[in-house]
Amino acid sequence: MITLTINTLDPSVSDDGDMAKKPRTDRPRRRSFSPAEKLRLLAGYETATETGTGNAFLRENGLYSSLISEWRRTRDAGLLTGKPAGSVVGRPTGDQAEIARLRRQLDLAERRLVRTEAALSIMGKAQALLEDISESGDRPPTSRR
Predict the structure, then answer these.
(1) What residue spans carry the region label Disordered (predicted)?
(2) Residue 90 sits in which domain range?
(3) Does residue 15 form part of some domain?
């Protein structure tokens, strides 16, 4: 019976003994962000989404879209302002959540209003054009000589 070890296959590799059997002590640590960092990253992401590079921004900074959504909710609830760095950011209270919901609803209503006003303006111009066309069709043609 032949027993193969790492040393018999490649003598330059040494057996590290107990080191491979113990858990790593330098485990990856979860990153934490101060409220100022969150606001800075949110502003950067929103700028990037306007130019169509939002996903690239997330990859460059090692962030997930769910984290951005969570930070937006806390920002809209007013929890990211006025807190010192390193302090715990809690869940929004009922009033803060209601304020955030109403702000989102107001933003949606304002966007709909802008879209409706643009549509009405276009329809008014189209109606004026159609009236001009129908009036010119009622007049007898004039010959040009």
Answers:
(1) 1-36
(2) 32-137
(3) no
